[in-house]
Amino acid sequence: MKDRKRDLVIHYDEENQKIVFYSTGIENTEAIRAKEFGGACPDVEFFKALPPVSAEQKIGGLLFALLDLHSNQKINIRDYETEAEEAVKQWEQDD
User: What is the pTM of this model?
Assistant: First the structure.
């Protein structure tokens, strides 16, 4: 059924060094969404306001940062942990 709402599940298979994307009916993720934290949820308008390449880069960076945040074997596209620490320091200085 094409009209059924679906969720995208992203799984980082650290052992095999693969990022796996699953599309599944929302009924299969309802319990997960109810139990887990609120998630990273930027408004779609944030991305639509950017040029397409920038929007794609932003969401890709967010994806890699979240995968590294929650994994034992980091992908290490960037040093996201240090970048986050630096951003927090900058916010604290601005206050």
Answer: 0.77
Which residues lie across from 13 on neighbouring strands?
A: 18
Q: Per-residue confidence at 42, pLDDT binned at 50, 70, 90?
A: confident
Cα–Cα distances in Å, from 36 out to 32, 40, 41, 94? 6, 11, 13, 31
- DSSP annotation of 95 reads -
Q: Are 75 and 87 in contact (CB under 8 A)?
A: no
Find where tokens 């319990």 sit.
Answer: 31
Going by pLDDT thresholds of 50, 70 and 90, the confidence category of residue 19 is: very high
Query: Crossing angle, helix 80-94 and helix 52-69, to 10 degrees?
Result: 110
Residue 19: which of 67, 72, 81 has the closest Cα?
67
pLDDT more than 90, % of the chain = 49
Contact call for residues 80 and 65 (beta carbons, < 8 A): yes
